[in-house]
Amino acid sequence: MTRRIALAALAAAGALLPSPAAAQTVYLAFGDSITAGAFDDAGAGGYPARLEELLDARGVPAVVENHGFPGETTAEALSRVDDVLDRGGDVLLLMEGTNDIKDLSPESIAFNIAAIADRAEARGLDVVHGTIIPRHPSSGFDGTNRGTRAFNGLVREIAWENGRNLADPFYVFFHDTPDVFSTLYADNLHPNAEGYDLLAELWADVLTGRDEVPPVIGRLSPFDDQQNTPANAPIEIDLYDFGTGIAVSATRLLIDGEPVEATIAGNERRQTIRYAPPQPWSGVVFVDLEARDRASPANERSGQLLQFVVEGAQFLAGDIDRDGRVDGVDLVTLAFSFGTQRGMAQYRGVADLNDDDRVDGEDLAILASNFGQRSF
Question: Which CATH number characterizes residue 153's domain?
Fold first, then answer.
């Protein structure tokens, strides 16, 4: 009897003790200055610290370590990732490549990203890929984000091919955020505090299973703004969804605003879209894509996916965007660079219509002489 009483007392005392804390997941946020939190005017250290707070608020015990290194290229990241992995962790959050865009092809940057991810998996860590955020239009290179978009498409391919999850800041910043460059950027490359808030939320959504992003593009041919495209070139698109899956019957391809009968194959995770022109292309071709996922409510995408210029197309002077007409869009592009010269951040060679290394009244006069005219 005495022993039973003692055991009962121990059981009662144990009930008063706090239950063991759930095991914490250690996330290693790995990247460049954007991961490090450069220009975070709230002084919060970028997205990793915010992400830890969000995960905690959502009931996910986590430690998010900030392993961002400002100015780093993917080759330099590859040389230091082992040191980071040696410290231990559970999941690598990999978002890197911004500093390579000027000097390396998208394929070369993606090769390094794949190698970093493979090293982490070889150590037993899970990997979550992240696309890099868009570059500000005043960025000294790739202000149109064509190179950045191409690289991010390859990041999505790598994630899908290896069965990894993906956070897609590029899509949300570039397509879903009005006035993104005036509201979420501290300079021409880095987010401000509000931008880091959004970055953290995007990572948190992926890590807690919330689907807020529609189907996204992987490989794309022709690429956006491709020049001298063969007149019989087929359009080929890879479409992915890393959340609830693609609503497969809803995908639709449009050429110059009109729906076409494209060949669409695949499943809710990956679709391949192919369209061969029944007649040779001419001039500039505009390609739109409509797709949605199976979330409730659905996340939808629509609008222009790319445009390409067919070989032999002739353009009027002043047709800066190469769409076959000189109009207000071209005027706005020229106005953005007006008064600049080569070497200045806002200088754009496409607006320097007489190739004298400055955008001035002479270029405006050239554009004005053809304003309202079409070449095809």
Answer: 3.40.50.1110
Supply the pLDDT for residue 56: 97
Question: What is the C-alpha separation between 127 and 302, in angstroms, rounded?
Answer: 30
Q: What pTM, to 2 d.p., does this model score?
A: 0.84
Q: Answer with the residue of higher pLDDT: 242 or 225.
A: 242
Residues 111-136: pLDDT tens digits? 999 999 999 999 999 999 999 999 99
Same domain, 173 and 83: yes
* Residue 370 and residue 332 share a domain: yes
Whether 2 is in a domain gets the answer: no
Residue 28 has pLDDT above 80, yes or no: yes
Two tokens, residue 295: 């979330």
> Could you tell me if 131 and 90 lie in one domain?
yes
pLDDT in tens, 325-347: 999 999 999 998 899 887 676 78
Number of domains present in the structure of the chain: 3
- Examine residue 8 and state whether it is found in any structural domain, yes or no: no
Q: What is the DSSP string of 1-50?
A: -HHHHHHHHHHHHHHHSPPPPPPPEEEEEEESHHHHTTT-TT-S-SHHHH
Domain boundaries, position 139: 25-207
Phi-psi region of 116 (alpha: psi -120 to 50; beta: other; left: phi over 0): alpha
Q: Provide mean pLDDT across the span 141-154.
A: 92
- Same domain, residue pair 49 and 167: yes
Answer yes or no: is pLDDT of 18 > 70.
Answer: no
Q: Is the dihedral of CA 293, 118, 73, 187 positive or negative?
A: positive
Give whole-number Cα distances, 265 to 216, 239, 275, 295, in Å: 16, 10, 12, 21
Coarse DSSP helix, strand, coil percentages of the chain, rounded to the nearest 5 percent: 35, 25, 45
